[in-house]
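Input sequence (286 aa), recorded before submission:
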Amino acid sequence: MAQILKGKEVVDALAETMKKDVEALKAKGVTPALGIIRLGERDEDVSYEKGAKKRCDSVGVAVNQYVLPADAGERQLLDVIHGVNADKNVHGVLLFRPLPKHIDDNAIRAALLPEKDIDGITDGSLAGVFANIPLGFPPCTAEACMAILAHYGIDPAGRRVTVVGRSLVIGRPVAMMLMHKNATVTICHTKTEDLPAVVREGEIVVAAAGKAEMLGGEYFREGQTVIDVGIHVKEDGSLCGDVKFAEAEPVVRAITPVPGGVGAVTTCVTIRHVIGAAKYALREKP
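Predicted structure, token format:
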């Protein structure tokens, strides 16, 4: 049986460090604050917002919520963005996307300051990830993958890693972050020939294809570590990832569960980035 890489263990460890960081910042007169910008009432956005607020409360991070109607105009949203950019008491900004179709996503992303972009959506933040320089923050889900590997002592240095998925939200950023840790990375996708064979080559597999249970048992072999980024709702209401857990778990060495894996860590990383942004505002190392 595989080792189950539970997100809760990672979250508990990160939370202790975050509490100490917040206490140190408050001693200097700074309360880290998250600004959440949401348009409309999408269930998944509201649910994530509640989770983020609960995590903020648990470590002492303040939350400012900016809720606009789903039909709000681009000018209204830009005014909110410019407002949080200028507000020294708001250190990190979480903007829920996708935005409504009548709003130019590129214009909104360009308006947000990279140093306040805690989820890696701006071009500046992504440039920081690709160039490995401290500009903005990487996408939270990508960093959650790295946090899980670090917590469980799985060093990617010198390892062959297969990333399934090439999005700018997870696939490409996590590939770059793994390369910065000296892994040898293959990025593959639905157009990759003989995809199962390519995935089997990886000692570490990051499944970020965005398709429910796409990777069955034929994709895996003994000794692999599998990080399943996907989260999907099945017809019966249960959750699953991009990996067919029941087929992979008996074969591989270690695997993250869904739910209770990467998703659990992502919210925690979001709050850690807020604290890092507050440190940056004081010109401390995040």
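Checked by second reader. The first helix runs from residue 7 to 27.
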